Amino acid sequence: MKSAYLILAHKNPEQISILIKELIAADSFVLLHIDKKSDIFPERFYEEKVPNLWVCKDRIDVNWAGFSQIKATLALIKLLYELSLNVDYVHLISGQDFVIKSRDTIHSFFQDNLGKNYIDCRSIPVNDIKKFRGNLDKIEYFWEVDKLGNDVAFQMFEKQKENNKKRTFPKGYRPYCGSQWWSLHIDCILYIYQSCIPGSVLYDFYENTYVPDEMYFQTVIMNSNFKDTVIPNNYRYIEWINEIGRSSVLTKKDYFKLVESPCFFARKFDTDVDRSIIDYLSTYINNRRVNS
Q1: Could you write out the DSSP letters of every residue in 218-273?
Q2: pTM beyond cutoff 0.90
Q3: How does pLDDT run across 123-180, given as a tens digit for each residue?
Q4: Residues 192, 77: contact at Cβ < 8 Å?
Q5: Helices (H) and strands (E) in the chain — how many of each?
Q6: How far apart are CA 53 and CA 30, in angstroms?
Q7: Which pairs with CB-CB distance under 8 Å and at least 24 residues apart come from 13-16?
Q8: Which residues of 42-62 are buried (b: 16+ CB within 10 A; e: fewer)?
Q9: Where are the strands (E) in 44-96, listed by range?
Q10: CA nearest 245: which of 138, 140, 164, 142?
Q11: What backbone phi and psi angles, to 5 degrees, belong to 176?
Q12: CA–CA separation, 105 vs 109, rounded Å?
């Protein structure tokens, strides 16, 4: 069982380094994308000369709620294939994530469930989400977050609502949504690599949606032959602040909830807020690894 971890990062290089060291092994590879506008120097990771680590040179200027999130993820998937890495599963995480289970535990789970795809997934509209009409507003109106920024894009959305200027979802497809982070089998990743390209129906449509990173891959997969392999659970521990999609920063007070969780990864952490929780989790994971 071999795994590739795709990391989207934008801050706290020391925290990213700790995460990478927990992930990398002889059968684990890490591919890192650093936000183009971040002040992190990619050379920091080149100089460490960590085996099985590659930094994506195609750096995207990533904006929250913009399609740039998708482009950064696809840049990592492209790098995966350029490197010809032979892996079974690909895990998308952020630089503010951390593992809460040992590598052996994670690998054993995916070995036992080979071929299944783990992605949080719900059909739109989502009845228990009131804001944005269960996410319909995110796709039925034209959004230009990457070009105009969130504030102006939201103002344009409000004007479209006033004038009832909706757009039609691509015929023959059904929209889905869920958490941005996933663990997908390599066959599904290959499908994404081959089909998620400019000019394809869903790619072009989702370029102008709101928070497409929480909709696009779900929609692509659930409208493909891989839909029957989907397990709607990404095994990420996240505490949400509100239904907009902001997650709270986890600290040492969350330690027991994290180690008792059935999840494999958790987010988000911030060493500027609390460094100790990462140290505690690292000690816990490594002790479990030694004793297993």
Answers
A1: HHHHHTSGGGGGEES---EEE-BSSTTS-BPPP-GGGHHHHHTSS-SEEE---TTT
A2: yes
A3: 999 998 888 999 999 999 999 999 999 999 999 999 999 999 999 999 999 999 999 9
A4: yes
A5: 12, 12
A6: 5
A7: 13/40, 13/44, 13/45, 14/271, 15/95, 15/96, 15/269, 15/270, 15/271, 15/278, 16/40, 16/45, 16/95
A8: beebeeeeeebbbbbeebbeb
A9: 53-55, 89-94
A10: 138
A11: -135, 165
A12: 6
d(CA 269, CA 92): 16
Structural contact between residues 114 and 88, judged by C-beta atoms closer than 8 angstroms: yes
Q: Is 123 exposed, middle or buried (0-12, 13-18, 19+ CB in 10 A)?
A: middle
Cβ–Cβ under 8 Å, residues 254 and 269: no
**Token couple for 197:** 């390209």
CB atoms within 10 A of CB 122: 18
Phi, psi at 282, each rounded to 5°: -65, -45
Structural domains present in the chain: 3-123+180-190+232-291 (3.90.550)
